[in-house]
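ARCHIVE CARD
CATEGORY: sequence design from structure
SOURCE FIELD: tokenized fold
FIELD CONTENT:
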């Protein structure tokens, strides 16, 4: 997974679109997100074992899920138009790689925007990371 993040950071391509994949019957549970960088799609998905997976391309095998463009939502709008400058794969105390942290920034003079995507109960939750001082 880190190879994919490295390639995205090295490319400098800005995030242009975010699509949420979800099951309408489960309400607000996020099954996956498709992030588009200069025409290249990277998909993040919650696995059944509550780990997180990152793949190149769309999730065609999840065609039964509904899709919603969330690029202009409060969570993602701060990242749209900015390249990925840092990425972390996070491992919890039980050894599961269950979250990823992404930092979007235009450069050293831009404080940027950091968020975490965390798998809980086979659903992706999103958390903003803020500076305290």
């Amino acid at each position: 997974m880190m190879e994919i993040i490295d390639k995205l950071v090295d490319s400098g391509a800005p995030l242009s679109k975010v699509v949420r994949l979800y099951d309408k019957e489960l309400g607000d549970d996020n099954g996956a997100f498709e992030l588009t960088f200069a025409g290249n799609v990277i998909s993040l998905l919650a696995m059944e074992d509550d780990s997180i997976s990152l793949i190149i391309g769309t999730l065609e095998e999840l065609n039964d899920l509904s899709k919603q463009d969330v690029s202009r939502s409060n969570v993602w709008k701060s990242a749209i138009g900015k390249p990925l400058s840092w990425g972390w794969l996070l491992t919890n105390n039980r050894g599961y790689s269950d979250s990823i942290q992404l930092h979007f920034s235009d450069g050293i003079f831009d404080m940027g925007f950091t968020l975490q995507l965390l798998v809980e109960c086979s659903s992706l939750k999103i958390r903003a990371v803020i500076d305290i001082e």
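CARD ANNOTATION: Residues 2-11 form the longest helix (10 residues). The radius of gyration is 14 Å.
SHELF: design records, drawer C
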